[in-house]
Amino acid sequence: MANSNEEILAGLAEIVNEETGLATDAVQADKSFTDDLDIDSLSMMTIVTLAEEKFEVRIPDEEVKNLTTVGDAVAFIAQAQA
Amino acid sequence: MSKPTLAQRPTVAGSRLLSVGGVRGENLVPNDDIVGPINSSDEWIRQRTGIRSRARANGDTTVKDLAVGAAQDVLAKASLTGSDIGAVLVSTVTHFEQTPSLAAMVADAIGATPAAAYDISAACAGYCYGIAQADAMVRSGAAEHVLVIGVEKMSDFIDPTDRSISFLLGDGAGAAVVGPSDTPGIAPTVWGSDGGQAGAIYQTHSWLDYRRAELGEPVPTDTPELAEEVSQITSPTLRQQGPTVFKWVISSMPEIARRAVAAAGLELSDIDVFIPHQANMRITDQLLKLIDFREDVVVGRDIADTGNTSAASVPLATERLLREGQAHSGDIALQIGFGAGLVYAAQVVILP
Q1: A61 is in which domain, residue-wise?
Q2: B192: helix, coil or strand?
Q3: Among A50, B181, B207, B233, which one has the highest count of C-beta atoms within 10 angstroms of its own C-beta?
Q4: What CATH code would you report for B190-197+240-350?
Q5: B228-277 per-position pLDDT tens digit
Q6: CB–CB of B327/B333 below 8 Å?
Q7: Could you tell me if B176 and B155 are in contact, meaning their C-beta atoms sit under 8 angstroms apart?
Q8: Cα dihedral sign for B204, B210, B213, B217?
Q9: pLDDT value of residue B229
Q10: CA separation (Å) from B159 to A29, B163, B187, B281, B350?
Q11: List-wise, which residues carry O-(pantetheine 4'-phosphoryl)serine (chain A) (predicted)?
């Protein structure tokens, strides 16, 4: 089932909070996973794996390096659900 | 005229682990001793892997020495001698002879000749593969007692300048003796492979390419990077796609673990001890989050001091839990190995 971009952002924020302890409102579309949120490659893979389950999409490993910002991830998930 | 009927061996009711033990490389090498060539730091390695030090063997200690040390430990613990062993299974990726097998040499060294002996190539899942085979051998009557060894001297195979996997790896041998039992002690193994992901953990180039380059013969290569690597006639070494492996483990192994528990006829709440392959503490922590064990489940965390010893890691982690009194004889343990192949195997066992 397709989610709105707002729902995807909120869901990602919950996952990031679970993995890193960052407050959910710190997870905004323009934030960079590495530079702003200080998420390393293994945490990123955890977030990707949990997002795949939550949103019922497949995010290929080679795609992960293109997901620089939270907004990139939201857009990819939205497109994958479409 | 009808054909004669073949005889088959009578089956044995049950099998179990009679002992688990092992030996580690003689030197505990702290992070500070290896960070130079990889431009890293103690803090970075601890944060990314949970590793403080790794066991590394002396230069003149051989993979056979480590395997024999583990064999002698488990034979003594089971009050058996080499002559009681009907089959020797050795899992390793660091026995650098195509033939003969390390298992045959170990069998001879411990006085188990003429036991059946062969090596297993299943990388970090190799010990759990070996336990699956030993269980089948004992219950089918193929051997009364089977010695299973996972052994690696990874320090002979690694590249000190590699940032992908080498700094994780340690040397050691873990082993178990599997024998007959009146009550079931080894539940069905859930195992498998995914060779489509062979590139996730891989050898830089084959020994055949190495030989061709050394002889000055043309080396067929798929990529310029590989051609460059081979042209330098460097000996092959290991690499991994760390994030890819991490994702595969946390997305696939929780289900394999749950299936192994179900195959044992148990609930997750019945599991007293969880002994995952010691790949990376972050992987262990994530598996614990994703599998609903009891809160008081005891977890193998030998990696912090010993490093990732590939095929040896599950039995060495088991040995440590038993020796330190964190786990006890009779406890119900779920063990799971996963690694290069990709391959995996999980089974529930009763600790000896």
Answers
A1: 5-81
A2: strand
A3: A50
A4: 3.40.47.10
A5: 666 666 789 999 988 889 989 999 999 999 999 999 999 999 999 999 99
A6: yes
A7: no
A8: negative
A9: 64
A10: 40, 9, 38, 22, 38
A11: 41
Instruction: Say yes or no for a CB contact (<8 Å) between A61 and B242.
Output: no
Looking at the structure, give the CATH architecture of the domain made up of residues B14-181. Answer: 3-Layer(aba) Sandwich (3.40)
* CA separation, residue A3 to residues A24, A71, A81, B25, B81 (Å): 18, 14, 8, 53, 64
CB contact under 8 A, A61 and B244: yes
Chain A nearest CA to B281, separation (Å): 11
DSSP, res A69:
B
Tell me the residue type at B180: P
Under the banding of pLDDT at 50, 70 and 90, the label for residue A62 is: confident
Contact yes or no for B247 and A49 at CB 8 A: yes
How far does Cα B247 stand from its chain's mean position? 20
**How many inter-chain contacts (A to B, CB under 8 Å) are there?**
28
- Which residues of A fall within a CB distance of 8 Å from B250? 45-46, 49
Collect all residues of chain A within an 8 Å Cβ-Cβ radius of residue B48: 40, 42
One-letter amino acid of B42 = D
Q: Specify the pairing of strand B146-153 against strand B87-91.
A: parallel
The kind and range of the H/E element at B78 are: none
* Predicted confidence (pLDDT) per residue in B296-321, tens digit: 999 999 999 999 999 999 999 999 99
In angstroms, the separation between the Cα of residue A24 and the nearest Cα of chain B is 20
Q: Kindly tell me if the per-residue pLDDT of A1 is higher than 80.
A: no
CATH 3.40.47.10 placement within chain B: 14-181, 190-197+240-350
Peptide bond into B352 cis (omega under 30): no
d(CA B311, CA B90): 9
Verify whether the Cβ–Cβ distance A44 to B243 is below 8 Å: yes
Least reliable range by pLDDT among B5-19, B135-149, B216-230, B329-343: B216-230
Helix axes A70-81, A41-55, angle to 10 degrees: 30
